[in-house]
Prior knowledge:
2 copies of one chain form a homodimer.
Chain A: E1 2-7, H1 13-22, E2 27-32, H2 44-58, E3 65-68, H3 71-76, H4 78-83, E4 89-91, H5 92-103, E5 110-115, H6 117-122, H7 124-131, E6 136-141, H8 145-150, H9 157-166, E7 175-178, H10 187-193, E8 198-201, H11 202-213, E9 223-228, H12 232-243
Parallel strand pairs in A: 1-2, 1-3, 2-9, 3-4, 5-6, 5-7, 7-8
Helix pairs in contact in A: 1-11, 1-12, 5-7, 5-11
Amino acid sequence: MRAGVFDSGVGGLTVVKSILEEKLFDEIIYYGDTARVPYGPKDKNTIISYSLEALEFFKNFDIDMLIIACNSVSAYAIDELQKNTTIPVIGVIESGVLALKSSTDDKNSDILVIGTSATINSNLYDAHLRQLGYENIVSIPTPLFVPMVEEGIFDGALIEEAMKLYFKDVKKTDRVILGCTHFPLIENEISRFLNGTKTIHSGDAIVQLLKTRYDLKPVADTKISFFASSNPDNLKNVAKKWLNL
Amino acid sequence: MRAGVFDSGVGGLTVVKSILEEKLFDEIIYYGDTARVPYGPKDKNTIISYSLEALEFFKNFDIDMLIIACNSVSAYAIDELQKNTTIPVIGVIESGVLALKSSTDDKNSDILVIGTSATINSNLYDAHLRQLGYENIVSIPTPLFVPMVEEGIFDGALIEEAMKLYFKDVKKTDRVILGCTHFPLIENEISRFLNGTKTIHSGDAIVQLLKTRYDLKPVADTKISFFASSNPDNLKNVAKKWLNL
């Protein structure tokens, strides 16, 4: 099986990391649209149009499945992508919500959703969770975590001060959904700050969906290739660091 | 006199603020290419192409002068812009370097240049300063200041921790060039942290150039209009806050 993984930038590499650890595919093709990152502030039609261009790119590789490791694309372009291909297209929002559900059935759980301003303002995690009956949902935009992680800052005073700022009104929380693919890199810090709250992580959520819905089993080894619409060397450097390649 | 002010996003508003305070124009047209911000990570040809599109936009307004309130455009597209128009095109790098020169003639001054990674990696402030004979120049990328300022964080623990990180090896400095149009909003913090070091600020530098080279005198009042390639309401909201409109 060959999977395409699409993100607007480098964040989706955390999803690749989870998939690689489970060896669910013979081959992974990662494509980051680094020339046009970030997608968050762009409008829905632009995000759809860029996503369809990415789909065209993946047609070069005869992939069996397309994994959307980007919250903005997952929010706005999954349906349009699925209309334009016969292979399954799965995204981080759907998988994150399902992972939350399998993590706790208690509809009164206090659920915290964090992400970029664009993801939080789209309100999609909240809407999907409420459809499933969850009622106590607090969503907080935590945008500064993104440039910090991209600068290689995974802990220390800056992360701590940002958490103090963002989480100052959080009293009790049972689960925190990391609604941004950059955040798994500071997952332990976030969990510790929130008194050990269990985190829901896009990479693990995608793995869970792949194993349950598509019944994927581990293979011997996964080959991986990286492509970027701009500055591919930077993508490869980040991949080396984040994936320990 | 009518001026166009061009930036890739909202940062150039700090330059507008300085010009407004001095009332040097009857009218200012601000255009932020917010659909395609940031320019920093984009290549030179892309920046030139986007800048020429902005020049076309300004042709609707019959401006007398084009002010480039963006370090990436100032670094890579000033010459190409000037080739395509008869009005003067002035940028923040040239004006910043001239303002430094008028601030200190001592070629042994310790000069610190800070900016985004793209601006610092372009090495242009350093090159221009060395051409003028300055020798003790240290350049440090301080990219996290940009998203902090865009989130409205102008002081406090986050700015303090970022300064501790970025300035940890700075021993003595006589002048600090704020090589990013976002930084005037945290100018006092930076100066205080660096033991009261004098700052060179793109807005003040542009004003100085306008007064000396073009002999502009104050007018009764300045009319200002804002345009953005995406989300103009956000630009107007930031303008209200930063310019106290």
